[in-house]
Fold these 3 entries.
Entry 1:
Amino acid sequence: MRRPRRRLASTCVGTVTAGLLATGAALAAPGEGAARGSRASDTAMGAYLDYGPNGVARIAQLSRWLGGKEIRVGHTYLPGDVWPAIEGRVSFLEDWAKWRRAKDDRMFVLNVPMQARNEERVPDREVARLIRAGAQGKYDVHFERLAERLVELGVPDTVIVLGWEMNGITYTHRCAPDPENWKAYWRRIVRTMRSVPGQDFRFDFAPNRGTDAIGWTKCYPGDDVVDIIGMDSYDQEPGQDFDDQITQPYGLRHHVDFAADHGKEISYPEWGLFRRGDNAEYVRRMLQWIEQHEPLYHTITDYCPHGVWQCKQNPAASKVFRAAMTPVPDPVVPTPVVPTPVVPTPVVPTPVVPTPVVPTPQVPTPQVPTPQVPTPQVPTPQVPTPAVPTPAVPTPVVPTPVVPTPQVPTPQVPTPEVPVPVPTPVVPTPSPVAPSPAVPVPVPSPEVPVPASPAPSGSPSPGQSPAPTPPAPRPPAPPLNSRQWCVPLNFGEWLSKMVGTQSVCFKVDWPF
């Protein structure tokens, strides 16, 4: 089918490119609204939005417009002007590959021209020559490079729509000038691309709906080189209405039946409004058809005059499309609460079985006498401590004038015999003291008259001779073996004159 000028760099055709997941149930009768959300479907659905990065970016916008419907198909076209473009040496492939790799259930659909100068209205005779050259393998290298490029980009499962609308009159890759060589050329391309390691391509044979220049079944290259049988279907003749589009030769019904006969899945890579303008009925019926036959994927061509989102000249058709594609949550059917009957559990008393008390035998613990081991008494030798008598050394006391300080003897301590000093006048000692620890009261000695003017040092005055000092009378010696001992006290010549002769007596009880 002849198309308006496509918006691909210098040569490309505008067509479908993004995917939307179709939902639904079995179709309503023709003319009724499309069912929405009535049953799940594996069909992916979208729209061609642009061939390059803009097309990738618009997928998310379309999804929001459709109330969050998931887009599963990315669809674009390779330019058909020169062979390097057909080899995939275009930068926008990287954008589409990145989008595809982001989710496992996405699908990348790529329309691939079979000839360079693909929209230059090359005459049939030249087209025939080019087809024969391709059938002989002249262009194999270009398709091998394309396959390698797609594998490198990480999209080895790309759906290749090869030589689309081959039954029409528009493209240089059309079939009518030489159908047999055209089929041979298709087969070479598919086998060349499948020979590249890592590939998992699927090839979509997609003619125009209707007879056009040649019945499309005459161009079918064989089941071994075709994976999907598609169809591009726009709202135009032949046919006055949608029913005619279904029943016409090589129409929608023929397409579905032919694919079923060959065991192939179907697709609708391009569909949309065209000759009849804003035809909401066509959009409604096409969506019903898609929902009924569940193609692998479908993409609406969304630029004017075909589109329903970017093209604002079709508001009625846009409203129908949006209402059909916007997901509607399934109504929440409340689960009836069935009360569970409470069956009382009979209380069976548990009999109390008395536990017999088994007396624990008392085993007497034998008393094992502990042997008494006598501790040997080691006598400690009594070492007599010699009693060393401490001699009583009289401490001379300097008495204040007239008051002599008597020396108190130490009681009960035998004093060894001390040599008697040079005899001095001894004052007679009072009677012996009884052997009592009491301190004897000293007897005052008779006052000794003090000379009128004694010299301070006790020496004679100048010009006078010292008077001789009369010797002090000795105390009477104690009787032999007496128990009383008296020790004379010598206070010096001067003091003795004042206090008289004193002595200290003590009595010792001897053991004999």
Entry 2:
Amino acid sequence: MDEAMLAVFRDLLKYDGRFRVAFFFLTLTLLLAVLSWFSPYPPTRTFMTPQDMPPSLEHPFGTNSRGQDLLWWMAFAVRNSLILGVITAVVSRLIAIFVGLVSGYRGGLIDRALMSANDSFVVLPVLPILVLLSFLLQGQLSLVTLALLLGLFGWPWDARLIRAQVLSLKERAFTRTAVYSGTPPLLLTLREHLPFVLPVVFATTINNMLWSIGMEVTLSVLGLSDVTVPTIGTTIFWANQHQALVAGVWWWLAAPILVAVVLFLGLYLLFSSVNEFIDPRTRLRRIGA
């Protein structure tokens, strides 16, 4: 399995320029997140550095009006944003896999019931619901709570993709062979069908992380999350609160925007590359076969 994964990574790195760019961008992002464990400044402390210093060798991203070094603040921000994206993706993938596998394989009344619930979640206005929940929680929407909520709303589209693939797998010879041999339905779906849907799950995981981080940025800029926790969104929130552009502290906004562009481009290019790699015809054409 490890050799197969290495072979896939090698092929993508060799033949797909988008994957190379994504690998470079995401490596930079992860290195920045790792720096948070070596920060000389606690993320919650203010006035630890001179205020409003422009980018320099000593402060590569500059400092803000709260006396914080933006490089180290952004290191915590990227780490927390990635944690939120991963938690959301894990929760939503578990729900999507369960609904997609069960609905696609069992069919009948169970399929109709699960797809009715699925379609109900599809049409729900997620942002207004999150805004309402944030007001009810009085702005104390923690990072983990927000990630869990996003995970509960982020699964329906991907569950439909998994269901469609299972509907096709159910009609194949290996499924009939497993049924005739007496394999229990749960074991059959996990052993025979799940490996086929894992590439789709991986590709949609990246897309789900993009969506969740974007939602967090939206809520934080509006001040509807826990703004004391460093994230990409809360960085922009505090810059707006201190009127950074009016005060000429442009680097306070430039730092989170630059990091967000690198992160979002890296995830998007990785999603596009992996999504295309899943299609064997496209993969063969890319390597010249």
Entry 3:
Amino acid sequence: MTAEGSFCLVLHSHLPWLSHHGAWPVGEEWLYQAWAHSYLPVVDLLRRLGAEGRTDLLTLGVTPVLAAQLDDPYALRACHDWLGNWQLRARYAASRWRGDDPLLRDLAAAEHQAAGTALAEFESRWRHGFSPVLRPLVDGGVVELLGGPATHPFQPLLRDPVRRFTLHTGLTDTALRVGHAPRGIWAPECGYAPGMERDYAAAGVRRFLVDGPALRGDTHAARPVGDSDVVCFGRDLEVTYRVWSPKAGYPGDPAYRDFHTFDHPSGLKPARVTGKHVPPERKRPYDPALAAAAVARHAEDFVATVLARLRSLRERHGRPGFVVAAYDTELFGHWWHEGPAWLEAVLRALPDAGVRVTTLRGAIEAGHVGAPVDLPASSWGSGKDWRVWDGEQVSELVALGAAVQDELLALPAQDPAFRDPARDQLVREALLCLSSDWAFMVTKDSAADYARRRAKVHADRFGELAGLVRSGRLDRVRARAEEVRAEDGPFGHLDARGLACGS
């Protein structure tokens, strides 16, 4: 173990399940933007560093619902089209900005080149999906993979049988995609209720993530939960918030590319942040040289912050410390254009500064484990409690989810010897209704009407199929289940026989 201590970067890759038959095309745009600007460059970075012989670079969480989309043939074809369209939009911008600021002309050329690079990468490595790209990184020890329950539910609000089933389904889905089930998970929204560690232990999960306040900020080591052998890791907010906090962080620097300012005819983002209160029409053109200088400055600052934190922990505890910084993967490239460059600079600079870069698994192996702890109910949302997913604003969604679960568990038991695709589809609709994304979007007033509609659509589909099951109209339920599946596409490897229904 190095003198300064250990650092683990945890990235969480997740987008909600997006209907791919025109229900909300903006949703598909989310997926393809994140694919092009985050997943492609971050995976390319990990591959390049792995080729240099580097291992244990970071811990990567990939939710089953996102993995299903990144492996889906429809999404693969559509993303390929999107990348080609990106290149065409850059070509159009080049003609549109021909007589404008030289920085704009350079930006159009850089976008055209970036789109071409992304197309070549996608066509050579990604055409069979994400799983064949991810598995060598996992098998080679470049990253540690975290899984999670199917469809990203807020687990504390699930009935016990449903919670166990979603966890088992999610881990099984990941095992089928990459060859083995993860031993760690990023619990959706870091949601925790006392006793959930017993479900984790039964499912073979040995480590999971919580937010720092759940440990009262004492995040210097993994902590066994209760009397179990399952350990939790807490986000170090002092370090994490240097990059991205509710109020500040590196991506807001005036030199960085502005995410919110569009050139609408081309769909490109030609401006730099310029200033927090500068209106879009007055923002300055993006200057890559200024942005590169900011990346170098912020990488140096982050390394200094990690070092200071580790030294403080060593003084306090008398042993080398440990720091976990955790973010959404989509921050790097999608929300923050320069994020992948910053990430590479940090991953290269930390070892040179005497910091051991590792994973959650590697931290345990290095002995960064403290005394057992009894965790409180918690999440990583506003207030660090459950208010985002169980508050007054989303009371109707909470009631809907509870009713769907109760009806699901009251259905006649399924013959365990026969896998019924109709029952699989019925359960799928119930689980998609329970996604935590809908409550988050409503609470944060981000496409709230869309979120309410999606929850209701899945609940209505479930209710229709459940009614047909109860009536014994098996031919009709199978026909309707196939219609629903055709409308919205398949989701992962879900076998409803694992859910105990009936009295």
